[in-house]
Amino acid sequence: MTDVRGNVLYLVVPCYNEEEILERTAEVMREKISRLIKEGKASEKSKIMFVNDGSKDHTWKIISELCREDAVFTGICLSRNYGHQSAILAGMMEAVKHADMVVTIDGDLQQDIEALDAFIECYQEGCEIVYGIRNSRDTDGFLKKMTATWFYRLMNWLGCNVIPNHADYRLLSSVALHALAEYKEVNLFLRGLIPTIGFQSDVVYFDVKKREAGHSKYTFKKMAGLAVDGITSMSIRPIRMITALGFLVSMLSALMIIVCLVDWMIGKNVPGYTTMIVVSCLIGGLTIFSMGIVGEYVGKIYLETKARPRYIVDAVIWKDKEDKE
Q1: Cα distances (Å, whole numbers) of residue 186 to 55, 81, 230, 245, 289
Q2: Sheet harboring 47-52: ordered strands across?
Q3: What is each CA distance from 255 to 2, 221, 259, 272, in whole angstroms?
Q4: Are 51 and 82 in contact (CB under 8 A)?
Q5: 98, 26, 116: which is closest to 319 by C-alpha?
Q6: What's the confidence (pLDDT) of residue 324?
Q7: CA 98, CA 102: separation in Å to the nearest integer?
Q8: What is the pLDDT of residues 53-106, one digit of tens each?
């Protein structure tokens, strides 16, 4: 085993309209951090960082109250809703200024917080990145389970290096986070981006619990958007597929021209009205679909070239333990 590494731990918790469960989440996480500190696995400087991603309810008010009551909590408020991935990145980039290791975890208490011990153990053994992988999807409904399964299969088939059944429950060391900070793209897909960093990594398996309150903020629309962002930011295979499809259609068209010429020369007269309509609709549909895929990539390039900020921090609440009233 390697020498003991720095053990200042920060939990980064993205929050969007989590007022129903936030106080319970804070209680569970505070208890876990206290136990880790007592066992010597985490420093007394460790903190729980809530990132308010433009919530429309009382989430930020609750975070503010928690921070005033206990210095273990700190809060970041983004100027508007930037999305789950940007909220995670904002928390990590703020936390790396103070932490040796940062764990990102959802605020719904479904991801087993007891897995933190295994995360820290892997980190102390020299891993810079530790991925949390769920053991099963028994807590998901049929539709969520099916779409998630196909999501990972599609991403890997299209050339995106994603780890199946890994969401955003992971540990990154300060070394890995400083490397991640070098990635400047606006189109964020952390599940595919982080594996490209390299460094020694490991996985920790955990059980998923039922959500104690509230409801999932990842709708089908958001999942579809995440898939599109992941594909367009991590793979150019769809463009190559369009090229291959265009070549195939061109070959078929050339073959049809030869067949038509042969029929004309032997005097065979086939009306072919239905065939013409079907082929025209097929080619037209493929053309529009292909233009849509290319347009999606062009749109992403447009966003990248503008280089707008990935998030804007509106407020930060910070208090050291010695400042506690």
Answers
A1: 21, 15, 12, 30, 25
A2: 201-206, 129-134, 170-173, 101-104, 9-15, 47-52, 73-78, 313-317
A3: 66, 41, 6, 16
A4: no
A5: 98
A6: 46
A7: 10
A8: 989 989 999 999 999 998 899 999 999 998 888 999 999 999 999 999 999 999
